[in-house]
């Protein structure tokens, strides 16, 4: 009888699209892939992949897609499923440049699960980060205010 090792979520990293596309899949890592109209071409082998489409904006502006409570809820569900699977030890988050959107999502995941995050990094998208925090708070309070409910 083979024993399977129960893994704990230990890491979250953020990067740009080019590096994510060049990486071989890591079987014990999940990916949150953030893109615009053209999805990233990721290599196989990742534990799981969540693909989201939204732009790096913090106010509604045509023709851009703004981050929404529905996006936040998908991220919350995905991160919880990755952690609860006991098969994932890290989450890789990427966007085009790996500076703002992916950093905001990684910051939220790091804070929620007590994972390391660069303390002085401040270029993350504040709107994406605050929307994630607000949606989690709504869930904890049993509210259904966000669009994702």
Brief summary:
This protein is α/β, with parallel strands linked by helices and 149 residues long. The protein has four helices and four strands; from the N terminus they run βαββαβαα. A four-stranded parallel β-sheet has the order 1-4-2-3.
- As laid out across the biggest beta sheet, the strand order is 1-4-2-3
Name the overall outline.
Answer: globular
Low-confidence stretches: 145-149
CATH homologous group name: Protein tyrosine phosphatase superfamily
The CATH architecture: Alpha-Beta Complex
Radius of gyration: 15 Å
Secondary-structure-based class equals alpha/beta
At the first level of CATH, what is the class?
Answer: Alpha Beta
Helices, by number, come to: 4
Give the helix proportion (percent range).
25-40%
Mean pLDDT across all amino acids:
92
Instruction: Give the total of domains.
Output: 1
Q: Major β-sheet, in short?
A: 4 strands, parallel
Strand content: 15-25%
CATH topology: Protein-Tyrosine Phosphatase, Chain A
Count every beta strand, where a strand is a DSSP E run of 2 or more residues. 4
